[in-house]
Design a protein that fits this description.
Order of helices and strands: EHEEEEEH
Helix content: 10-25%
Number of strands: 6
Strand order of the largest sheet: 1-5-6
Distance between the termini: 40 Å
Structural class: alpha+beta
Length: 87
């Protein structure tokens, strides 16, 4: 048996979570803004992803919307490795 490698490419819409846009991002993905650490000013966005799991993203992470209108959160390192800007 030989397992082949495949490259999966899909056009998505995405935005990086920042301190300035966090409330707008939460509105866009129908998520909630939450404090990740009550002792500091560290904030994040919490969404229900397409896998029906609750996902949490912090400032610096990306919220991605796929062609099926489903959202997921990925960290910056993964996002930059997988996705390239097309417009």
């Amino acid at each position: 048996m030989k397992i082949k490698k495949f490259k999966y490419i899909q056009e998505v819409k995405a935005i990086k979570i920042t301190k300035d846009n966090i409330y707008n991002v939460a509105t866009w993905c129908d998520g909630d803004v939450y404090n990740t650490d009550f002792s500091t000013e560290v904030w994040g966005v919490c969404i229900d992803s397409f896998s029906f799991k609750r996902q949490q993203g912090k400032i610096g992470d990306w919220v991605v919307k796929n062609k099926d209108e489903e959202f997921l959160i990925v960290d910056d390192k993964f996002f930059r490795k997988i996705f390239k800007v097309i417009e």
